[in-house]
Specification:
By secondary structure, this protein is an all-alpha fold. 71% of the residues lie in helices and 0% in strands. The chain is built from 20 helices and no strands. 41% of the residues are buried.
């Protein structure tokens, strides 16, 4: 396959460099553990932990989830090298056509979304950026369940959405100016849509894809003084981008609160308010609430009795598809988050409950911890293979980064058909590619001439 490898040097040379140094093998695990433990610590210190029915049970389960992820990751680091597949053959040239196709997808999909909502003028776009609350509530009021049939085409081909950013990060230096501009145009068009409706979800996803891909590509280089400087510069760049995103998100949330007249729901922290003012400090409180309040939802869900959803309750997209085909809303009605709303009033679909009740609807809570071991295993596997130059593994690494980032929220990959089909398509391509490489390895060598 043309996308089996798309790196500047041979995979076996990259593998030798990575294996010899061993540097960065646990990088994603450290980031994941720091993020997950940090969000829970913020919940305990500044969140709604006082409302938790059984804080000891919640803390044990959250710790178990983090430990399961670390266990799977560590097992792969220790034993996964023995299962390392045969390196893919080198590809002549970079996948310019594939990059151009994916950029075209971004551009076309963005124009489609903007046409449905109405193309913004430069003035209205500036207003939406500086007053996102108005745009956000206008979008909610104008939301309709009917979409033009063309949306199904973009959904079925959403694998292009998952590919572009990892490919662009990997090949950026050698893509050429025209292709770079085209890629930037596609990404900017997509960002324009989300800014025009006062929502940052799409921008956040793109930032996660970029960060995961950037860290993997950067970690493939040596550990010399020059590379160390570049690594520090890269980390600094990532921190600046993250801070800018978090700052604008806080402004976005504060503007929403002002337009909704709900600023009292998130009182400003006095220390933060002295620095940025009461209004923006309320937005900061709302931003902190985002990745932490799901733990209270998890606490409520842990007290709800189990009811199996036949493998369809863990993914909102799957249960909705099943309901459209059969007319049976049983999996959606019986999943943990829906039944917990009926028992406790914690709103399903409005507030979060972490990923665990979604997984437990199909796997039980002990099964969800075992699933996290599998996630940790593949996180280490894709990280190692991405550092060895495997492009499909780099793309799947970006998807797992999205999965892990939303662990305090929900099963993000299974929430929408758009995301689920994109991930499933990548996984299928990876499986077919590995089968193809395995068949190549089984072929007898050519006889000597």
């Amino acid at each position: 396959m043309a996308i089996a490898y798309a790196g500047p040097t041979r995979p076996e040379d990259q593998a030798a460099t990575v294996d010899r140094t061993g540097s960065g093998a646990h990088g994603p695990l450290k980031l994941a553990v720091a993020y997950l433990a940090g969000t829970y610590l913020v919940f305990l210190l500044f969140g709604q932990s006082a409302q938790v029915p059984d804080l000891a049970v919640l803390t044990m389960f959250v710790s178990g989830g983090i430990g399961a992820l670390a266990l799977g990751y560590g097992l792969n680091v220790r034993y996964g090298a023995r299962l390392r597949p045969r390196p893919a053959s080198r590809v002549a040239g970079q996948p310019r056509v594939l990059i151009a196709v994916c950029a075209t997808y971004y551009l076309a999909f963005s124009l489609f979304l903007l046409s449905v909502r109405g193309f913004p003028t430069p003035g209205s776009l500036l207003t939406a950026f500086t007053s996102p609350g108005d745009s956000y509530f206008d979008r909610i009021r104008d939301t309709t369940d009917s979409m033009p049939p063309l949306v199904h085409l973009f959904t079925l081909t959403s694998v292009c959405y998952t590919m572009l950013i990892p490919l662009a990060v990997l090949w950026w230096r050698s893509m050429g100016h025209l292709l770079r501009l085209y890629v930037v145009a596609g990404l900017m068009a997509y960002a324009t849509f989300f800014l025009s409706v006062g929502t940052l979800k799409g921008l956040g996803d793109m930032l996660i894809f970029w960060a995961a891909s950037y860290l993997a590509v950067r970690s493939r280089h040596g550990v010399g003084r020059r590379s160390s400087r570049k690594r520090r510069s890269g980390i600094l760049l990532a921190l600046v981008v993250g801070l800018l995103f978090t700052g604008y998100m806080s402004f976005n949330q504060s503007d929403r609160l002002q337009h909704a007249g709900a600023a009292d729901i998130f009182p400003p922290n006095p220390v933060v308010a002295r620095v940025v003012g009461d209004q923006l400090a309320s937005g900061v409180s709302a931003t902190v609430f985002y990745p932490t309040h799901g733990y209270l939802g998890l606490a409520y869900n842990l007290e709800t009795p189990f009811r199996w959803t036949y493998g369809l309750g863990g993914s909102k997209a799957m249960s909705e598809l099943y309901q459209r085909v059969t007319g049976d809303d049983g999996p959606a009605r019986d999943r943990y988050t829906a039944r917990t709303e009926a028992l406790t009033g914690w709103p399903d679909g409005i507030y979060w409950s972490t990923i665990y009740p979604w997984l437990a609807s199909d796997l039980t809570y002990p099964g969800s911890l075992i699933f996290m071991v599998v996630v940790g295993w593949f996180l280490a596997k894709f990280w190692r293979e991405a550092r060895q130059g495997r492009t499909l593994s780099l793309m799947l690494l970006a998807q797992l980064a999205l999965f892990v980032t939303f662990i305090p929220a929900n099963n993000q990959i299974g929430q929408q058909s758009f995301a689920l089909i994109g991930f499933a398509s990548l996984a299928l391509l990876s499986v077919l590619n590995r089968i193809h490489r395995g068949l190549d390895a089984a072929d007898p060598p050519d006889p000597p001439r």
